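Slide 14.
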Amino acid sequence: MTLFLGLAWADANGLAGARPAWWLLPVAVVLAVGGTSEMVRLFSAHDVILSAWLLCPAVVAVVVSVVLGVQFSTSFPGPSSPAAMGWPLVVQIFVIGFIFIIEIVSYRTHTRAIERIGAAAIIVGVIGLPLAFMVGLRLLDIENIDATALKRGRLGIVPLLSLVAVVKAGDVAAYGVGSLCGRCRLVPTLSPGKTWEGAVASLSGAILVAWLVLEGLGIELPSRPWGGWLVFGIAVGLAGLLGDLAESLFKREMRAKDSGRSLGGLGGVLDLIDSLLFAAPVAWLLWTLGNA
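Slide 15: predicted structure.
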């Protein structure tokens, strides 16, 4: 977290003359590679053999394409940074098409080709696209392309930080309250450790931090998310909860306790970003509607 905050500060202030997102883009690439590798390993454990050497660059390409799309949109009148989010979708289609070509050329009977294609599409869609939305949040304000700092009249890094702060506040609140006084199981068969008490605490923490970031700190911004801090806190908080449960479903099906061990006691990369993956598109949509 300290490293992320340091990179976020460098990115917000355009350290060393870097353009917006360039300091944080390596973080997105590391998360993309780490999350993809973990999902490939989990699928492979159940005899759905995927190629990490192919999928890791593919997911990274989906993430990085947002920056290229925003840069391209500034060269012509009319397009805005939200339009650049079409680039990751185009890259994803090309990636899936390329995977189909590989399976067609190398096809043998009883090789589970369709399962491999489906698994690859899930990985690209569930990891690549949400991370692309996070990059898109950093570049939401078209004026950010020429900005070297968070200045008056610009959204700067606030949309991205609002997502991370709200979701992680929900995660911490859910864990703390659920561990201390959680009694009523939320989905006992899927994830016995999650409780209704923790879910309520998670949503409350998300709403509180949404107010703090968007109103309480007094940051002057040209726009706010659609519906204000309350809608943002509720919608992003609920999406974060859904992302956490979605990863629990995936791990339960794969019979794995954690997605990996790359982060020690915290588990793997997917355990760190699971709640962000579903919340990122929601946050991007609310900020885009509010910035329209």
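Speaker note: The first helix runs from residue 2 to 12.
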